[in-house]
Design a protein that fits this description.
Elements: H1 2-14, E1 18-22, E2 25-29, E3 40-43, H2 51-63, E4 69-73, H3 80-86, E5 90-100, E6 115-117, H4 122-135, H5 144-155, E7 159-164, E8 170-176, E9 183-191, H6 200-213, E10 219-223, H7 227-236, E11 239-248
Parallel strand pairs: 9-10
Antiparallel strand pairs: 1-2, 2-3, 4-11, 5-10, 5-11, 6-7, 7-8, 8-9
Length: 250
């Protein structure tokens, strides 16, 4: 499973609008934002990696005006961490990822007064993005580039869901990436503060996960950011499976 997850991450990076192949790495760089959570690289499984390759990766990021950063499944390239640390990288986090299958996913009720829908217009995509940004502690606004990213995910076969009130207020949202090797990453599950503690995160996670399974995906995977989200995902049917490393320089 680790290898399939890592391959799917690389595949998704290759489909970015500005993807770079830098030796044994694939970098997904976005010209519209310098966010390190969007601009990052990941190693190609099975490709040998040297210190010179790491230096070339750093140079490419700096040349693009971006912070050198990687996300990857640790078991697929166990030698890489030492090379990165020797090059001055700092570990941001180690996360355990969880997986779910069509057999284990459990539907969750949508809180009363809310509906889950897939946005089909740019105003709805903007409301979704603004709500997600607020949920993650950022400014509740959406740029044209943000809207384009959501639209592009949908056009490539990803699943996007948002929770709306009857008056059109967006309460929260989540997405699944376009399938690769019959896998899909679920992420961006966010609920605005006024709508929390009502089961909405679980409902969004279950809805997005089932939506991607309806497209023929065998496994969905995600990462939990804390104990609360871990409990939510376990309730939906996700179980621990492997480990990923987040590491950056500068």
């Amino acid at each position: 499973m680790d290898l399939r997850i890592q391959r799917s991450v690389v595949s998704n990076l290759r489909n970015r609008p500005k993807a770079l192949e830098i030796g044994p790495f694939v970098a997904g760089l976005d010209p519209d934002t310098d966010s390190p959570f969007i601009n990052y690289a990941s190693p190609i499984p099975g490709a040998p990696i040297t210190a010179a390759d790491v230096d070339a990766l750093v140079d490419a990021f700096i040349g693009a005006g971006r912070k050198p950063r990687l996300e990857y499944v640790t078991s697929c390239v166990p030698e890489l961490e030492d090379l990165l640390l020797a090059a001055g990288f700092t570990i941001e986090a180690r996360h355990q990822y969880l997986i779910c299958t069509p057999q284990t996913v459990a539907a969750q009720p949508v809180p009363e007064g809310l509906i889950l829908v897939e946005p089909t217009t740019d105003p709805d995509r903007a409301a979704l993005t603004a709500a997600a940004n607020e949920a993650f502690g950022e400014a509740p606004e959406a740029s044209e580039a943000d809207i384009a990213r959501v639209r592009r995910n949908q056009e490539r076969g990803g699943v996007v869901l948002a929770a709306f009130t009857p008056t059109g207020e967006c309460a929260g949202a989540g997405q699944a990436m376009p399938p690769s090797d019959r896998l899909s990453e679920v992420g961006g599950i966010g609920v605005r503060p006024p709508f929390r503690r009502r089961g909405l995160a679980a409902a969004i996670t279950a809805g997005v996960t089932q939506g991607i399974f309806d497209l023929g995906v065998e496994f969905a995977w995600l990462e939990a950011s804390g104990d609360d989200s871990w409990r939510v995902y376990e309730r939906v049917g996700y179980v621990p499976a492997g480990h990923r490393l987040y590491i950056s320089k500068g």
